[in-house]
């Protein structure tokens, strides 16, 4: 999907942060019914960088997006876009940002084209410019054929694409995408990812919320996992995996008997791992390889010496899914209590 964009001179890492969030708090309700949704969140996004915000349902992702996009006031703390405070300079901030919300903002009673023209006029484009921008976006989002149909007749994915197109009338400094690919088919998802990457390459700072780890892993420079109103995990996908996950080594041997012998007689001694850490399934033997490739090589050497044939060997990275399942939910062992210490 080609998006004609100006390349921002400040694109890339190490650039000044576009978004700065400092110690942000947000509570809803009062006294006994008070709910602390954000409890001291800080983060930054430089130009040309994507931050993926992950968290279980109700973790506060949309609340954060609403505050940063000036739709909601924070309780305390601050946030700024290019140095403009989201509360005091809300009007300026609105000119610098675009938002694709979790729920569609387009009007079902208008056609796709009418919607885009409407949003373009809101952005201050002349009527001629608005029509030509609408047509460009319709083409980019594969909606030209449906341009003159009422949005009420669109499929969920078409509506989603139109919604995202509407937020890209002008290229923002900071783009919010709240669960942008929920409900998209695999092709549309991939197209959206490519579009997001193009925007990033053009210097746009992007805050993306998602439930999909493959999406975060593919797109994000930084992942932030929100739980109990705070960031409980932050880093690049690679950092998170190396910090939290142990790789798994899988070997396939010639017979179940050899697999059993590998477990009892050969590998525990060679690797210094307890026999109980090995999983034997048919011809396969797998074990946690804390030292990665070194463990794999040591295992292969020991098995060769013991005369056990190895038919295949594989070292796989831990999945982010495993890490997040462990950390994203309130009842996880290391949980920071969500609202437990609220007054
Ligand atoms: N206006 C509001 N008044 C009261 N409570 C609210 C309001 N908006 C959000 N909340 C509460 O704040 C919490 C966080 O909601 P939020 O929509 O930010 O979660 P989320 O991380 O976006 O979840 P999801 O993945 O389901 O979209 C929820 O418990 C929600 O009920
Ligand atoms: Mg949400």
Sheet of most strands: 6 strands, mixed
Q: Overall pLDDT, averaged? A: 87
What is the number of helical segments per DSSP (H or I, 4+ residues)? 11
Return Rg in Å: 25 Å
Helix percentage: 25-40%
Bound molecule kinds, no repeats: adenosine-5'-triphosphate, magnesium ion
Number of domains: 2
Shape, principal axes of CA atoms: elongated
Contiguous runs where pLDDT drops below 50 for at least 5 residues: 1-13, 332-343
Structural class: alpha/beta
Report on this model:
The protein has 343 residues and is of the alpha/beta class. The chain has two domains: 223 residues, Rossmann fold (3-Layer(aba) Sandwich); 72 residues, Alpha-Beta Plaits, CATH 3.30.70.2470. Helix 6 links the parallel strand 7 and strand 8. The longest helix is centred in the middle third of the chain and has 16 residues. The protein is elongated. The termini are far apart. The N terminus and C terminus are likely disordered. It binds adenosine-5'-triphosphate and magnesium ion. The site of adenosine-5'-triphosphate (ATP) has 12 residues, from strand 2 and helix 1.
SSE blueprint:
Blueprint lengths: L16 E12 L6 E12 L3 E5 L6 H8 L7 E6 L2 E2 L4 H7 E4 L11 H11 L4 H14 L15 H11 L7 E5 L7 H16 L3 E5 L3 H7 L2 E6 L2 E6 L1 H8 L2 E7 L2 H16 L7 E3 L2 E6 L3 H13 L4 E7 L3 H8 L16
Parallel strand pairs: 3-8, 3-9, 6-7, 7-8
Antiparallel strand pairs: 1-2, 1-4, 4-5, 9-10, 11-13, 11-14, 12-13
Bound molecules: adenosine-5'-triphosphate (ATP) and magnesium ion.
Adenosine-5'-triphosphate binds next to strand 2 and helix 1.
């Amino acid at each position: 999907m080609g998006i004609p964009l100006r390349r921002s001179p400040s694109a890339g890492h190490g650039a000044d942060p576009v978004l700065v969030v400092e110690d942000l708090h947000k509570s809803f309700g009062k006294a006994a019914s008070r709910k602390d949704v954000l409890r001291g969140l800080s983060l930054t996004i430089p130009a040309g960088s994507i931050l993926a915000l992950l968290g279980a349902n109700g973790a506060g992702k949309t609340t954060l997006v609403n505050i940063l996009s000036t739709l909601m006031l924070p309780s305390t703390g601050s946030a700024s876009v290019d140095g403009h405070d989201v509360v005091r300079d809300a009007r300026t901030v609105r000119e610098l940002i675009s938002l694709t919300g979790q729920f569609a903002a387009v009007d079902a009673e208008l056609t796709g084209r009418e919607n885009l023209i409407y949003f373009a006029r809101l952005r201050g484009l002349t009527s001629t410019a608005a029509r030509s921008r609408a047509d460009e976006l319709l083409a980019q989002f594969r909606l030209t054929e449906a341009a003159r149909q009422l949005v009420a007749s669109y499929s969920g994915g078409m509506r989603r694409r139109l919604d995202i197109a509407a937020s890209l009338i002008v290229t923002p400094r900071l783009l919010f995408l709240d669960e942008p690919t929920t409900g998209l088919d695999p092709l549309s998802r991939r197209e959206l990812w490519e579009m997001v990457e193009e925007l990033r390459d053009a210097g746009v700072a992007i805050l993306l919320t998602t439930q999909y780890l493959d999406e975060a892993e593919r797109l994000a420079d930084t992942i932030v996992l929100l739980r109990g109103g705070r960031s409980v995990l932050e880093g690049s996908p690679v950092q998170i995996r190396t910090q939290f996950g142990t790789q798994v080594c899988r070997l396939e041997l010639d017979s179940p008997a050899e697999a059993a012998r590998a477990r009892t007689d050969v590998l525990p001694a060679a690797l210094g791992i307890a026999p109980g850490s090995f999983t034997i399934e048919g011809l396969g033997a797998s074990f946690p390889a804390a030292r990665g490739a070194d463990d794999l090589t040591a295992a292969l050497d020991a098995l060769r010496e013991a005369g056990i044939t190895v038919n295949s060997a594989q070292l796989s990275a831990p999945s982010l899914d495993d890490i997040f399942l462990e950390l994203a939910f309130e009842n996880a062992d290391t949980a920071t209590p969500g609202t437990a210490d609220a007054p």
